[in-house]
Amino acid sequence: TSDEWPMYRHDPRRSGIAGTIVPAKLEQAWEMNIGGKLTQPVVADGKVLLSAVDEGTVYALDEKTGKVIWEYVAGGRVDSPPAIYKAMALFGSADGWVYCLRLSDGKLVWRFLAAPQDLKTVAYDQPESLWPVHGSVLILNGVAYCSAGRSTWLDGGIYFYGLDPATGTVICKSRFESRHPKLKEGAEQAKAEHVTKILRTPPTTRPIWRLTSATLFLWPGAR
């Protein structure tokens, strides 16, 4: 409904705009001390969802009372709030997985390994995938979009997926990787291809356009 806020910044456009009229005078309804670093909340179906980032825990609170209805501990940090969609809560974790929970009780519906391999490193003093799933899952036209990876320059790039929200089945996928420049011996400057793809929504992931622009400058070590 118009007074709900079911995903990060309200909608797939990340507009940060809701249709609800906010009164000039607001009164605090409740307060819940969860502790630690928290994400922004999302609100739908009478529940407030948010994540305790470093604990990797997603909380569902009662919208009217603030009491904890359920909590779910993922396998890594959760740096963004879940997306609420059709009685489900979807979110990514630094362990490289995407999770889908039942909104009513927090039970796991499915999880999907977005990382190409289940390999770990250490970040923020805890185990983490080489391809963490950062940011909130974006749901558009019945498809849940997510990505895994740190940079287009590292570990094979960024892995991008469109998933069926109900089952976790892959609808579309792509990989974004910055190629290493081809250097000639003694070269002072070389061009590196940096490709940006803007994807269409399913059923195709054919790029709408691509941009090639990066330039790499090299200096001798004596300078």
UniProtKB/TrEMBL annotation:
Q: Which Gene3D superfamilies match?
A: YVTN repeat-like/Quinoprotein amine dehydrogenase (2.130.10.10)
Q: Which residues form the Pyrrolo-quinoline quinone repeat domain?
A: 27-170
Q: Which residues form a coiled coil?
A: none
UniProt protein name: Pyrrolo-quinoline quinone repeat domain-containing protein
